[in-house]
Amino acid sequence: MDWHLLGISFITVFLSELGDKSQLAAIALSGRGQSVKTVFFGAAGALLLTSLLGALAGGAVAELLPTRILKAIAAVGFAVLAARLLLFNKEEAE
Questions:
Q1: How far is CA 23 from the centre of its chain?
Q2: Torsion sign (Cα): 49, 55, 60, 64
Q3: Which sequence spans correspond to the domains of the chain?
Q4: Where does the sequence pass through the membrane (predicted)?
């Protein structure tokens, strides 16, 4: 097992999930629910399942497409998002 990759993955996901919608939903549910453990296990199971599905999908795509093409697709996607935010932001015009 690559412990460095495990640590980086854990830290990245942990930091990105702080204050996320799923954590806010868990806080709301545990405040209203009678069993905090049930909310914890439900939220942990959902996060594990979505992470597993994401890792499986990423591995499958990485097997089908070369790294260079994946990087190009990601770069084009980010460029399109940046252009839409900068050029077509209707909220600022109003």
A1: 13
A2: positive
A3: 3-93
A4: 40-62, 69-88
Global pTM reads 0.60
Long-range contacts of residues 86-90, Cβ cutoff 8 Å, at least 24 apart = none
| pLDDT tens by residue, 37-65 | 888 898 889 889 988 999 999 899 989 99
Nearest to 46 by CA among 30, 26, 19, 18: 26
Whether 78 contacts 54, CB under 8 Å? no
The DSSP output letter for 41 is: H
Closest to 43 (Cα-Cα) out of 26, 30, 55: 26
- Cα separation, 64 vs 66, whole angstroms: 7
Query: 39 and 33 in contact (C-beta within 8 Å)?
Result: yes
For residue 33, give both structure tokens. Answer: 């629910």
Amino acid at 18: L
Supply the DSSP symbol for 66: -
Using an 8 Å Cβ cutoff, are 40 and 26 in contact?
yes
